[in-house]
Design a protein that fits this description.
The complex is a heterotrimer of chains A (289), B (324) and C (408). By secondary structure, chain B is mainly alpha-helical. In chain B, 56% of the residues are buried. Chain C folds into two domains: 177 residues, Rossmann fold; 169 residues, Response regulator (Rossmann fold). In chain C, helix 13 packs across helix 14. The longest helix of chain C is centred in the N-terminal third of the chain and has 20 residues. Classes of the chains: A mainly alpha (289), B mainly alpha (324), C alpha/beta (408).
Chain lengths: 289, 324, 408
């Protein structure tokens, strides 16, 4: 019994750490810029394909693929924001939704056209490895992904807190006019932010590729998980994204033991509904004025 | 929008369309039937978005609820499909009122409201996937049509039958929307959409009015879902209650034009044939995902260059409606 | 003043006029021809792509081999994308394009929805692979299923399981059953629930675990199964989830006495053995299979090695092949390409010399072939080997299975 629950909890937390990276990326875009990035999940899938592709060509492990994916998606995010999405920063939210949904559809379609709709799995010896610690099994792939995610999250936190640009972004998000008045280049900063957000998604995708077979249609699920975590954890709150991610990963794993595992998402959606209705600022967010 | 010229145009158009089954082949009929279906849902969704100003991304909930209501009624109770239509409306409206009431009562707006609707749709989908009575993930199959089937009783027939049925449904829903929009409720809706606080200040029962929009929108969507069940002959939760369906339902009204009566129809006329063409093309050349690229590209073009849809500029060109 | 109205009406009429010629032509062309147009509906992409494509290979081979015997068949393949509701759309399209008989659709859900369209259009549908009972229990008159129903699959699987040699190290008393929640999985579960005890199996099923066929993570499900410590694992799977199950079992070091699938695709497929390497061995599954002692099998194997080197002839390709054989046989006897004539010929089908293990291919009044036999396979060094029944076995089953950590 103890072994069973212990392993389920550990597995859930490890996955939760990767979810947290995913959510941090969305938090940066949605929380800071208030852009409703409904294509976040598709960016994760791009990262997954990068991870798969690199493995297929060169046998590179996820830890090598993750920075590559991050760079590629940073560029995509920056360019997209700079030349397309910046126009929508002040637009009504349903317009933003439509913009991102359009992008999501196009990217999913392109994946299907170029990679085919069939799931592709990374079948390496690493998929069978575990680190055994007494009763508890640490799935090798998950552990590596979790550690990498935490490192990236910490790096992002530090950057936002201590670097000049990072602080400028936060300032600009809170007070756009004021920011412009003191010379902060808003379009560039927002593009940077979008790039960072997409980069997180891409890195998360590459880390997750050895765990889940990659196929074009996974995007929607990832987008929803990311939104759930961001809302539950709290908008624009980086600790919120981390705690939220771990919480959701853990909760889904435990829910799978209580109800049929295929129903585990019920818990996450139920939590989302409760948070939206009763405490929309989430666990760590500030109440909107 | 409802001047005599528009009305005469519409009636004439309807008469011509009614002659369809005697002039067109089966395939065209079935495409047009889908056009009518998605136009109807588009009009229904429009009530929420275009008039009450609330973005619902979980309309598959109402669509699926109506579809399953009809499906279960026919397969489990063996009752005539005619009862399924009002039942589908009621079930849809119930869910719509529920989601609306919860959302509006807790002052949920914008993105949050959209996510709330998504959450409810997903909850329904997961629950139905595990609901053995409704076939769960394995699907609910309507009984095969016997040779002595009477379409007017079972509401299932050949492509000509469904063509007429959906044409009539579209006409009815369109008329209902037109009357509502022109009436007092429409006036309230517009007031609430423009400035909710000001509307309350002059005595508009804002919450009640918004819940009514949600309920009507969902009810009409439910009826369309019921027809979908009859046409398809089988229901699967992940296709009829899933996010993909929610998006499919709203593409037509967005492309056509939010907040207009002809926008959703025009949008459906543009989108459905594109859908068929891209599916054909994809089969020919064994490419998957083409339809998604097409949909995405169309949405992108609209949102960048014609954010209010293609009906407003078209209407201006045809000089229909009030001259500004 | 009236210009606008006229022009829009004229536009509509023109549209209608232009569409008029597209009426009624295809029907004329069907009746006389010496080539049979067969529409094949299969999942060629998506989660069921691998078995779907193997089925297609079998069908393509059969088309070639039938041509050598002087029967001309033109087969069109339509992809259901592994989505059940696409079966109906695919069937309607094929019927519209003048195909006289349909073969399909591999997946139970897609087959039922295709059957609805076939029934409405009075075009016969030969079911190559699909086991849900509804296919022959719903009163379809156009359906001819050359595959076992879920009940038959379970019955023959249970037979094979009872025949497994018991010994000191192999005396299973308990089992955990896992299954996919799609139409197929649910049909199989129904079959097991109804027949397992009735057929007198001395192994008790202590838990049933279901999951979505598209799932990507089965760690909790396998952990649950492991915690119950059953003697047997009995998975009803497709390919991808079968791979996930074994992978999780390896990672969690879950070693039951044996893994015995009571009738499902997955383990005998090349994708499975390729993905798992040494971990695929010793997996036992009970499914229909080709009869290697038959003349047809020898001929097919020979030709298959030439046309599809590197691919494996198995259940999917085998039934894919037979589906075309049934259509060709009916065509030869009917001497016409009219669906009604083919339907009549199909009803009187009796093919003695065919590929799969079992009696002659014949359809009862519900359209079901009741003569299909169930075999038992075990994966040995990455290849499926027949280990039952004794009449066609090519080897003895290895029981209990080699523990994961002991595999070289």
């Amino acid at each position: 019994m103890l072994e069973f629950y212990g392993n389920v909890i550990v597995g859930g937390l490890l996955l939760g750490a990767v979810y947290a990276l995913l959510a941090t990326g969305l938090n940066v875009i949605f929380g800071v810029m208030r852009m409703v990035n409904f294509a976040h999940g598709e960016m994760v899938v791009v990262g997954m394909y990068v991870g798969y592709g690199l493995w297929a060509w060169t046998g590179a492990p996820a830890l090598v693929a993750a920075p590559v994916a991050a760079l590629l998606l940073f560029a995509m995010g920056y360019l997209f924001q700079r030349f397309v999405a910046n126009r929508f920063v002040e637009a009504p939210q349903h317009m933003q939704f439509i913009l991102y949904i359009a992008i999501a559809l196009i990217i999913t379609g392109l994946h299907a056209v170029f990679f085919g709709p069939d799931p592709r799995g990374i079948q390496s010896a690493a998929s069978f490895e575990v680190y055994q610690l007494g009763m508890i099994r640490f799935d090798a792939v998950r552990t590596q992904a979790a550690v990498a995610s935490l490192v990236l999250i910490a790096a992002l936190w530090a950057w936002f807190r201590y670097s000049l640009t990072g602080k400028a972004i936060e300032a600009a998000a809170e007070n756009r006019v004021g920011g412009q008045a003191i010379g902060i280049r808003i379009p560039h900063l927002f593009a940077l932010t979008s790039g960072l957000g997409f980069a997180c998604a891409g890195a998360a995708g590459a880390l997750v590729a050895p765990m889940f077979d990659v196929q074009p249609y996974l995007g929607g699920e990832f987008t929803l998980v990311a939104f759930i975590i961001v809302i539950v954890g709290g908008l624009a709150s980086l600790p919120g994204a981390l705690v939220g991610g771990l919480l959701i990963g853990l909760a889904e794993a435990l829910a799978a033991t209580v109800v049929a595992p295929s129903m585990k998402a019920l818990f996450s959606y139920g939590l989302l509904v409760l948070v939206i209705l009763l405490r929309p600022q989430g666990l760590f967010g500030k109440v909107e004025v | 929008m409802l001047n005599m010229r528009s009305v005469r145009m519409v009636v004439l158009l309807l008469a011509v369309l009614f002659a369809g089954p005697w002039l067109l082949d089966d395939f065209i009929l079935s495409v047009l039937t889908l056009v009518f279906l998605f136009a109807s849902v588009g009009l229904a969704w429009n009530l929420m978005m275009g008039y009450a100003g609330q973005l619902s991304l979980g309309h598959a909930l109402h669509f699926g609820a109506g579809a399953y209501a009809m499906g279960l009624l026919i397969t489990k109770l063996g009752v005539s499909a005619w009862f399924g239509l009002p039942l589908a409306f009621a079930v849809g409206a119930l869910f719509g009122a529920l989601v609306g009431a919860l959302g509006f009562r807790f002052a949920v707006r914008g993105v949050y409201f959209a996510l709330l609707t998504i959450a409810f749709a997903e909850l329904a989908r997961i629950l139905v996937e595990h609901w053995a009575f409704a076939g769960g993930n394995g699907g609910l199959f309507l009984p095969a049509l016997t040779p002595d089937n009477r379409p007017l009783l079972s509401l299932r027939g050949d492509s000509g039958f469904f063509y007429h049925a959906l044409l009539i449904t579209l006409a009815v829903i369109w008329l209902a929307c037109a009357l509502l929009v022109r009436g007092r409720i429409g006036y309230y809706w517009r007031a609430v959409r423009e400035d909710e606080d000001a509307a309350r200040a002059i005595g508009v029962p804002a919450t009640r009015v918004k819940v009514l929009a949600a309920a009507l929108s969902a009810g009409f969507t439910g009826v369309c879902g019921a027809w979908y069940a009859l046409i398809q002959g089988s229901l699967f939760p992940d296709s009829v209650l899933g996010m993909r369906m929610s998006i499919d339902l709203i593409i037509a009204p967005i492309v056509g034009g939010l907040g207009t009566l002809f926008g959703p129809i025009l949008g459906a006329i543009v989108i459905q044939p594109l859908n068929e063409l891209s599916k054909d093309f994809a089969q020919e050349f064994s490419i998957s995902g083409l339809k998604l690229i097409v949909y995405g590209a169309v949405l992108l073009v609209i949102v960048l260059f014609a954010p209010h849809g293609i009906w407003p500029p078209l209407a201006r060109w045809l000089r229909i409606g009030r001259q500004k | 003043m009236n210009d606008r109205r006229l022009s829009s009406t004229r536009r509509t009429l023109l549209k209608a006029g232009a569409l008029m010629p597209a009426v009624g032509l295809p029907g004329l062309l069907r009746a006389q021809s010496n080539t049979l147009k067969v529409g094949v509906i299969l999942p060629l992409t998506g989660v069921l792509a691998f078995p779907g494509q193997q089925t297609r290979n079998g069908a393509e081979l059969a088309v070639k081999m039938m041509k050598d015997q002087g029967i001309n068949i033109e087969a069109t393949y339509i992809d259901t994308e592994s989505k059940a509701e696409t079966g109906r759309v695919a069937a309607e399209r094929l019927i519209r394009d003048g195909h006289s008989v349909l073969v399909g659709a591999w997946d139970s859900g897609a087959t039922i929805s295709a059957a609805q369209a076939a029934e409405a259009a009075k075009v016969p549908l030969i079911v190559n692979v699909a086991s849900a009972p509804q296919i022959t229990e719903q009163g379809f008159t156009m359906v001819f299923r050359n595959f076992t129903s879920a009940a038959q699959l379970v019955t023959s699987a249970v037979q094979r399981i009872k025949e497994l040699p018991r010994s000191a190290s192999f005396a299973p008393k308990t089992a955990v059953l896992t299954h996919t929640s799609d139409t197929f999985g649910q049909a199989m579960l129904g079959g097991v629930k109804a027949l397992w005890d009735r057929l007198g199996v001395d192994i008790k099923i202590i838990e049933v675990i279901s999951y979505d066929v598209r799932t990507r993570d089965l760690s909790v499900e396998i952990a649950k199964a492991k915690a119950l410590n059953p003697d047997l694992m009995c998975p009803i799977t497709r390919v991808n989830d079968a791979i996930l199950i074994v992978r999780e079992m390896v990672k969690q070091d879950f070693n039951p006495m044996a893994i015995v699938g009571p009738g499902s695709p997955g383990p005998y497929e090349k994708a499975f053995t390729d993905a798992l390497g040494k971990y695929a061995d010793d997996y036992i599954t009970c499914v229909p299979w080709y009869d290697p002692s038959r003349a047809t099998a020898k001929a097919v194997l020979q030709r298959w090695a030439k046309e599809f080197p590197g691919e494996r002839l198995e259940l999917n390709s085998g039934f894919g092949w037979e589906g075309i054989q049934v259509a060709a046989d009916a065509f030869k006897r009917a001497g016409s390409t009219k669906p009604a004539d083919l339907h009549a010929a199909l009803k009187t089908t009796k093919i003695e010399e065919h590929l799969m293990f079992g009696g002659p291919i014949q359809f009862d009044e519900k359209g079901q072939n009741n003569n299909i036999g169930g075999a038992m396979l075990q994966i040995v060094k990455g290849e499926p080997v027949l280990v039952g029944p004794a009449s066609i076995a090519q080897g003895q089953p290895k029981l209990p299975m080699t523990k994961w950590k002991a595999r070289a």
